[in-house]
Specification:
The complex is a heterodimer. Chain A is of the alpha+beta class. Among the domains of chain A are: 153 residues, no CATH class; 148 residues, Methylamine Dehydrogenase, Chain H (7 Propeller); 169 residues, 7 Propeller (Methylamine Dehydrogenase, Chain H), CATH 2.130.10.10. Helices cover 21% and strands 25% of the residues of chain A. Chain A has a five-stranded antiparallel β-sheet with strand order 12-13-14-16-15. Chain B is of the alpha/beta class. The chains are: A alpha+beta, B alpha/beta. Chains A and B meet through α7, α9 and β32 of A and α3, α9, α10, α11 and α13 of B.
């Protein structure tokens, strides 16, 4: 194959050379080439790769011979020419390189246009259509002008296709055979015309009858019996057909149609229904609420929203709206528009049905008032104080404490001005003594015996005992005797103390308060280590206890009046002591710390009980005269009733005050108790305690007494009851005491 | 020693499973699980303590009852889902291999309910399980009907194929036919959302909502796959319910369906009930009879035209008389307690025969602007046999001739046109075109607005037609579903009967203010109130104060009298002031009473335990909210009434 290819290449070169020379005469050349085509058209295209005619090869051989000879010459001569270029300079023009080897490179493009796979139209504005392997321009073959085109239409050359060969740019011409071949390929026929793909089978083996058997075995019996296996299979098919599992073939369209027309089966699904108990956990879906009046297309006018309501509704976030619609009125049914949210609402309902957790909620459909306890009417529980009977004015600054004398004739009070005053019930001030100049009077308490008339008052660390000169001489004398009785014992009491701890300081110093006070009626003074907050008498009047919260170890002290002796019962207490009281009938002693109330047996000297009122900070407490109940007031606004028989937790908790409870007090004879609070009010309760163990106390709030003014967040500071009558006296931060009856 | 109990082995931890656990246990996908839950009626639960239930550290939100999931485990549908899933897998595999023919063959086996509207499975057994008795099914029919009526009016989508929608429409129409045949529709209500219907089927009240015939607006976040799942279930349910209902009436199910009529928008008319004995045939005969020959018609029209002008008013009156005559029949005995103390029993209501034949003596004609479907349904359900309408409203009318002399009532929903003269001139060609001019009225029939039908149905009697004549402003349309609660606001009752004393007094006071001296009285009143309160603070008894007040006033009055005598003029202002004073006193007494009550309440409230107090406060909160709403309504109505009065004056 090598020589002809070589030849062709050379021929190409020759041709291109030719065109190079005659640039000006392209049109002419076009005609010439056309002529050539016409000449060789009947046979084949000389340039086409596919069909190389034998003639071509001959011509190539001729060329071959000449080129070989020229190659021989090259060795002696220089293979370039010196020519002048446009500027008159020398230019070396090399001759064609002639590869003299026998190239087997079949990939090399023999034809020459090296532009690759780009459309020829890129070269439309150039005279050439690409470059050959040597980098020479391949000039555009001449195309005919208008007249030529006309001529061509008149006589269509044989094999004319109207196409252009993309490789050469020349018109592509195909022979009849080629066209026929293309047609067959396009119609996917076999390219060869007379090829028979299905020739008759020649039965090579069956046509030839063998003379000898291949096997000498006798014919098996099964060849003569019907097959059981086949019978089985046939029976299976028959069964399938009978049962309708195998159906005659139907085209898919028909099958679809039949399926579509298939009637639904209707039957009574509840033919043999029986009620079933639903599972206990089953909760039926709640039904939607039926529509109300406001959903009407023509509602009563009062259901229509006003302009403001409408705006408020529109402004609100759709999730927060109480109703998802605005009531609207239409004067005719034809004007009612479609409801825009219909699909959404239905969708949300279906979401609720399958997504919302269902919880059974017990809705109490009762009158809320039935929850309220049936309290007896206050009218039935009379007597109790209802109105302010008298106002005691005189103190400067707050009145901190107030107390009824044991005979109920006198009222003692003490306040921030350092005075102790005694009043008669009509509001007249009968006696006054300034026991301290800088310290306020914290507590005043009468000795609870009727045969004496002794008032104990506390200012700072000092405890004073006074006998106001208001009663009969005999009584006054008796009182003075009781106070003075201890002076004999004082030394007696002090000696063991010193002996005990060498130089131990006594818990209190008992002395005369000074001549000025003595003249006023204040006869005795005891000074303890820390300032006293509360004071409480034992029922016999010989002992009294004081609590000074800041006193640490000596915060609670028990004083004996007859001996002028002070004792400190507790070495240490958990928490700050707030108040202390004696039990009214038994040798018990109650001490309230911030959170708890401890009950001690003084005789056995042991802890009996701890009460836990649950309050954060106890302000004060009082023991019921019966001794089994206790009320506790706390700074966290609660009043707690403890039944000592029941539990350590409160029996009842009452929250009626908006501010802290300052003081609580039982009536000594009547079933009443009262509390005083910083919100300026007193509350009177009816608290009946029955001796029967089976019955609990009945507590009924009966009256709220208001009148005290609130001064710098303090209202009522103390309260006390008349020993017999249902009267109470209160001390207010506004500088007044009020008697309520 | 007993065994140590481990955490999470018993109790709530065992009773609940999270959604993901359930899915894993059932081995299905979330959408399949959703479907299963919807069909089987499984819903999440709210455990008492989520902490005890959830075993994982992240807090799950949905818990299912473990028994429910166990119950799902035996569901035959699960197998269908799995089959479908494996088939899909095969198809996708075949497509992945490029084996198109295999994929096509497999695709042929697959059920595509979104295309055909028919799934491979049936939900019959689910229906039977969920509703062991027919009554159970009826109890759950509310949502079913609302959903199907909605879908009957929706366009088809990819998840809701057209066949499904057609089936919805058919089922709902069949159901409506049952209601018509059994007269079991009891109430209906025109709301802004749509039309509510209530039927009493076998003693169960079923309430559903039908949208107005408009294109439904579909908001973006509506998942039609979920709705489609529900619809699939509901369709099965309703078809069984329909079957049961039809057979209980002795009717054949499904009824005969005329495709041609349906294409002409006959809707209800496209069905023919079979198996029922007399009623239908009779109806048919009447329809056949009722082809008026043109000659008679012309004669009738001529006569009608002559009496047209004369008898326009008289006929209306006649009709009302007739109506009144009918009313006499259906009065019911009312059981009123003779002595207090007995239990209150439900009163006998007129649901039944008389209700079902409310419109039986009427022939209706619907103008073309009226909504034909609901009117046709409701009229037929209440015993009307002959309903005609304009031909544009679709097929299936008793008559499309507006001038038909048999028509007794015509439903009109357009305002009367003023130019009566023009109508007169057009009168001639009316006969040929069988249409009336804008304002022409055919004598001998009552013209009504559609609301009349609904109000009549809800009240169980034919309402006065003159209230509903075209062009008049209609009385308010009230919901028949609201049950009157004691103390709640009721728009049907006069205001005076339901307002509390205090409100009434205040209202009167307001009146006075407007008419008389302005704000003075009120101000005085307030001041006095304040005083009184202050007094109370000080603990001085209220009564004394009151007396003192009274005596003061008397003194002042006496003084005024004397002055008047001196001046020689009559004591005119006194009477007014006296009245005002009496009212004032009343108000004062009321306020004192309320104050006392409040004090009493406070006393009692303090004695409650914390738990009870919380409960009490909650109840009071809701009650006051309700009361406030009622009070607002009353105030609005009072104002409106006052404005109305003033407008009249």
């Amino acid at each position: 194959m090598a020589p002809p290819r070589l030849a062709k290449k050379r021929k190409d070169v020759a041709e291109s050379d030719e065109s190079d020379d005659g640039l000006a005469g392209t049109a002419l050349e076009g005609v010439l080439s056309d002529d050539e085509d016409n000449d060789s058209g009947s046979e084949s295209d000389p340039n086409s790769e596919d069909f190389n005619d034998p003639d071509d090869d001959d011509i190539g051989k001729d060329f071959d011979a000449t080129s070989v000879s020229s190659a021989d010459d090259d060795e002696s001569k220089p293979n370039y020419k010196v020519v002048k270029d446009a500027n008159g300079n020398e230019r070396y023009e090399y001759a064609e390189i002639d590869p003299v080897y026998d190239s087997d490179d079949s990939d090399a493009n023999e034809k020459g246009n090296t532009i690759g796979n780009i459309p020829l139209s890129f070269y439309d504005s150039y005279p050439h259509i690409g470059y050959d392997i040597n980098g020479k321009k391949i000039m555009r073959p001449a195309t005919g002008d208008a007249l030529d085109a006309l001529l061509e239409t008149i006589e269509i050359p044989k094999g004319w296709t109207g196409l252009t060969d993309p490789q050469t740019g020349k018109p592509l011409e195909l022979t009849r055979e080629q066209l026929e071949l293309l047609r067959r390929l396009q119609t996917s026929q076999i390219p060869e015309e007379n090829y028979d793909p299905y020739p008759d089978l020649i039965p090579y083996f069956t046509s030839i009858e063998e003379k000898m058997p291949l096997s000498s075995a006798p014919e098996p019996k099964r060849r003569f019996l019907p097959s059981k296996h086949e019978a089985k299979r046939i029976a299976k098919l028959v069964r399938a057909i009978k049962e309708g599992r195998i159906l005659p073939y139907k085209p898919p369209e028909e099958r679809e149609r039949e399926k579509g027309e298939e009637e639904e089966v209707h039957y009574d699904i509840w033919a043999n229904e029986e009620a079933q108990e639903r599972h206990i956990m089953h909760i039926a879906a709640p039904k939607l609420a039926p529509p109300g009046y406001d959903l009407s297309y023509n509602p009563p006018p009062e259901y229509l929203p006003t302009q403001e309501e409408k705006e408020a509704w529109e402004k609100m976030d759709p999730e927060e709206r109480e109703k998802e619609y605005l009531p609207a009125k239409f004067d005719a049914l034809r004007k009612v528009p479609g409801y825009g949210e219909f699909v959404k609402e239905r969708f949300e309902r279906s979401l609720d049905l399958y997504l919302a957790p269902r919880v059974r909620k017990n809705r109490l459909n009762i009158d809320p008032n039935s929850l309220l306890p049936k309290l007896p009417s206050p009218e039935e529980l009379k007597p109790f104080p209802t109105v302010c009977q008298a106002i005691f004015k005189g103190h400067e600054g707050r009145v901190r404490t107030v107390s009824f004398s044991p005979d109920g004739e006198w009222i003692a009070s003490g306040g921030d001005d350092g005075t102790v005053r005694v009043w008669s019930l009509n509001g007249h001030q009968e006696w006054v003594a300034r026991i301290s100049t800088e310290e306020p009077v914290q507590v005043v308490r009468w000795r609870p015996n009727k045969d004496t008339f002794i008032l104990a008052a506390v200012a700072g660390e000092d405890l004073f005992f006074a006998v106001p000169p208001l009663v009969s001489d005999a009584l006054e004398k008796a009182s003075r005797d009781v106070i003075d009785l201890g002076f004999g014992h004082a030394t007696n009491g002090a000696v063991p103390m010193t002996a005990d701890g060498a130089k131990k300081e006594p818990p209190a110093k008992w002395s005369r308060p000074g001549s000025k006070l003595e003249a006023a009626g204040v006869l005795l003074k005891a000074t303890v280590r820390a300032s006293i907050k509360t004071l409480s008498w034992h029922r016999r009047g010989d002992f009294l206890c004081t609590v000074s919260p800041t006193g640490q170890r000596s915060s609670v002290a028990i004083h004996t009046l007859s001996k002028h002796l002070s004792q400190i019962p507790f070495r240490r207490l958990p928490g700050l002591a707030q108040a202390a009281h004696f039990h009214p009938s038994r040798p018990y002693f109650f001490v309230a710390t911030q959170r708890m109330i401890r009950c001690y047996d003084l005789q056995r000297q042991e802890l009996v009980k701890i009460l836990q009122p649950g309050a954060r900070w106890i302000s004060g407490f009082d023991v019921h005269p019966g001794g089994d109940n206790l009320i506790v007031g706390s700074y966290d606004r609660r009043l707690l009733w403890h039944d000592l028989d029941l539990s350590t937790r409160p029996y009842k908790t009452m929250r009626f005050h908006t501010e802290a409870v300052r003081a609580v007090r039982y009536h000594r004879a009547l079933p009443l108790f009262a509390d005083a609070s910083d919100d300026g009010s007193l509350q009177i309760f009816h608290g009946k305690v029955v001796s029967d163990l089976m019955e609990n106390a009945t507590i009924v709030p009966v009256k709220m007494l208001k009148g005290h003014k609130i001064v710098s967040k303090l209202g009522v500071l103390d309260v006390d009851w008349h020993p017999r009558h249902p009267w109470c006296i209160s001390a207010g931060a506004d500088g007044t005491c009020r008697l309520w009856a | 020693m007993p065994r140590i109990k481990k955490k999470g082995q018993a109790g709530a931890a065992k009773n609940y499973v999270t959604r993901n656990q359930a899915i894993r246990k059932l081995q299905i996908t979330l959408p399949d699980f959703r479907k299963l839950c919807i069909w089987k009626g499984i819903y999440p639960r709210e455990p008492r303590s989520k902490k005890k239930v959830s075993k994982s550290s992240t807090n799950s939100t949905t818990f299912y009852y473990a028994k429910d999931i166990q119950y799902l485990l035996h569901e035959p549908l699960l197998q269908k889902f799995r089959d479908q899933k494996s088939l899909e897998k095969k198809i996708s595999k075949a497509l992945g291999r490029g084996d198109v023919t295999d994929a096509a063959r497999l695709e042929g086996n697959a059920a595509r309910p979104e295309k055909t509207g028919k799934p491979r499975y049936t939900l019959d057994h689910v229906i039977r399980e969920r509703y062991p008795t027919f009554i159970d099914a009826l109890r759950d029919l509310d949502d079913c009907l609302s959903m199907l009526f909605l879908f009957a009016n929706l366009p088809s989508t990819s998840s809701v194929p057209a066949k499904m929608i057609a089936r919805c429409e058919r089922l709902t129409l069949e159901f409506q036919h049952y209601l018509i045949a059994s007269h079991s529709l009891t109430k209906s209500f025109l709301s802004i959302k749509g039309i509510y219907y209530q039927a009493n089927i076998k003693g169960e009240d079923v309430l559903w909502l039908v949208p107005y015939k408009f294109n439904q607006r579909i908001v973006g976040d509506v998942d039609f796959r979920i709705m489609g799942t529900f619809v699939e279930f509901y369709m099965t349910l309703l078809s069984f319910v329909n079957f049961k209902l039809y057979t209980s009436l002795g009717l054949k199910y499904p009824p005969k369906f005329d495709q041609l009529k349906d294409e002409n928008a006959a809707e209800l008319g496209a069905f023919t009930l079979e198996g029922l004995t007399l009623v239908n045939e009779e109806q048919q005969k009447q329809i056949e009879d009722h082809k008026p020959d043109p000659k008679v018609q012309a004669a009738v029209n001529k006569v009608l035209k002559q009496i047209d002008s004369k008898a326009a008013n008289g006929d209306d009156a006649d009709d009302t008389v007739e109506v009144e005559g009918e009313e006499g029949n259906d009065t019911i005995d009312k059981f009123e307690p003779a002595a207090p103390g007995g239990d209150v029993l439900p009163q006998p209501s007129n649901i039944g025969g008389s209700q079902g034949s409310l419109f039986s003596n009427c022939t209706f004609y619907l103008s073309r602007e009226t909504p034909r479907q609901p009117l046709e349904f409701i009229l037929k359900a209440f015993g009307c046999k002959r309903v005609g309408w304009d031909a544009v409203l679709g097929d299936g009318a008793f008559t499309t001739n507006e001038l038909d002399p048999a028509i007794t009532h015509q439903i009109v929903d357009r305002p009367p046109v003023q130019n009566a003269v023009e109508a007169e001139t057009e009168g001639d060609d009316n006969q040929t075109s069988q249409k009336l001019g804008a304002n022409r009225r055919v004598p001998g029939r009552v013209y009504l607005q559609p609301q009349w039908v609904w109000d009549s149905v809800n009240d169980g009697e034919l309402k006065e037609p003159h209230l509903y004549a075209p062009g008049t402003s209609l009385p308010p349309h009230l919901s028949p579903f609201v049950k009157a609660m004691p103390g709640a606001y009721d728009p049907t009752m006069p205001l005076e009967d339901q307002e509390p004393e205090r409100e009434a007094l205040e209202a009167e006071d307001d009146d006075e203010e407007v008419t008389a001296e302005g704000m003075d009285i009120a101000e005085d009143d307030d001041a006095e109130d304040d005083d009184a309160e202050n007094d109370d603070f000080e603990g001085v008894s209220e009564d004394e104060e009151e007396e003192a007040d009274g005596s003061d006033d008397e003194d002042a009055e006496r003084q005024r009298e004397l002055e008047a005598e001196l001046a020689g003029s009559s004591v005119k202002s006194k009477s007014i002031s006296k009245k005002a004073k009496a009212k004032e006193d009343k108000l004062k007494a009321l306020s004192k009473k309320s104050r006392d009550d409040a004090e009493e309440l406070e006393r009692a409230k303090g004695m409650l335990s914390k738990k009870k107090r919380k409960l009490y406060e909650q109840m009071i909160y809701t009650n006051t909210k309700k009361n406030a709403a009622d009070e607002k309504l009353r105030a609005k109505r009072r104002r409106l009434e006052k404005e109305g009065k003033r407008a009249k004056a």
